Amino acid sequence: MQDIFEEIIDYLKGIWLKRRYIIIATWLICPIGWYFVAAMPNVYKSEARVYVDTQSLLRPLLRGITIETNPNIQIRLMIKTLLSRPNVERIARMTDLDVQANNSEEYEAILKGLKENLAISGVGRENIYTLSIENKDPEMARRIVRSALTVFIENTLGETRSDSESAQKFLTTQIKDYEDRLTASEARLTQFKQKYSGILLNQYGGYYNKLNTNKELLKTIELEILENKTRLNSAKKQLAQSIVADDNGDNKIKNERSIQTTYDGRILELEVQLDTLKLRYTDRHPDVIEVSRNLKHLNKLRSEEIKKYLAHGSQNIGSLKRLSANPVIQEMQIQVNQMENLNASLKVRADDFRQRIIELENRVHTLPEIEAELVALNRGYEITKNKYEELLSRKETALLAQQADETTDKIQFRVIDPPRKATKPSGPKRFILFGAVTFLGFGVGIGLSLLMSQLSPIATSTIQLSKITGVPVFGVISANENLGLQKRDQKKTLLFIGSNLLLLCLLMLFLSYFLFPDIIQIPLKRIF
Fold first, then answer.
1. How confident is the model at residue 359 (pLDDT cuts 50, 70, 90)?
2. In the chain, domain spans
């Protein structure tokens, strides 16, 4: 450790002995560098802060009704594409920077400068974004930030509407295409049904299902006919037994009124009407006379019908008496008649189903193929129809979303700090640059001194001399004052200190020029 420390001391002594190179380097680098830093033009910074509100009240209301997009993703995309060439060209046109270009190279340089200097940054999840730029002209910096802010807002709001319009155009084209396809499918289906109108079944279910259904129905009807025949035979036996039992009874016809004819109902009505008229009028009234005449005529017709019926024989008389006098027999006769009618109806239905089965069996080779073709046509038609209705629904959804975007903004921009014209320059950072130039000058000088001390070494201690020569040193003789070495060394030291002080004064002048602009810059500008 002691050896390292002594070696460092030797290096420092060597640098001190070659300190003239520090003076040369600092005077060559520092004044020139300070001048270039001082001559650098001022730049002015303009910035604007905007808050993007994505928590719109319309979003929860339209959830599930319209297509919902994520506004945060849209904003991030617009931030990334803000410095794209179309947007940068638009900003250049809005600020008249494109007019300043005389050729394409200058125009490209302007666009490149805008793209490099214009910055946009966000603050976490708060959706607060800052647009800023530095320019030599403070008014131009303000105009550039204002134009960039306008482009950012308009592009973000217009992107959704542009997407909605594109979706509407796409859906309209697809709907027209599917509408034509649906019309063609309907025409083919209609032509097919017209062509096979006399062959196709009227109900759905297929050929074999239809045939099996008809056979099952025929079996059911035949079974019902057998059951009805059994009930009819039983009812006829009961009716015959009742008639025989009734023949031994005392149910005889006492007079003609016990026999029912087709005129009994009309006669009863006229008798009631005649009684009503007689209560109001006399026997000579025209209405009474007319009703009496009609009633007399109907009674005459009734008597003639009874005489004709009685003329057919005593068997008919006995049957008429039974049917007229015994209501139980009349009811049983009615049931027998109803069963006979039902049996006849069932036979007709059974014959109809047999005919249908014969017709279906005769079409066993042609009808299934026709039905398969019809199923294929219906399937294609249903697919096209469902897709067409789905596209119509999507179009209505897109239209509702577009109307919502046009009436209310899902994304709202609130400018917190509008762009302002800077009154003081924001750069360049001259004080930092002055320090960097000073550090560079002294660094180069120290490096040169160290290098020259190694190229032409001078022994500064007995230890260093012993290491260089390899000969032990037993004593040291101090320099005599008569040689003037001390005075020359003092002059070099004073020159070094004076040089550095002069450089420091020069640096202070440069710093004062920018630290006190009202005191120094304004008078100098008036003079020059």
1. confident
2. 2-40+439-527, 44-176+405-417
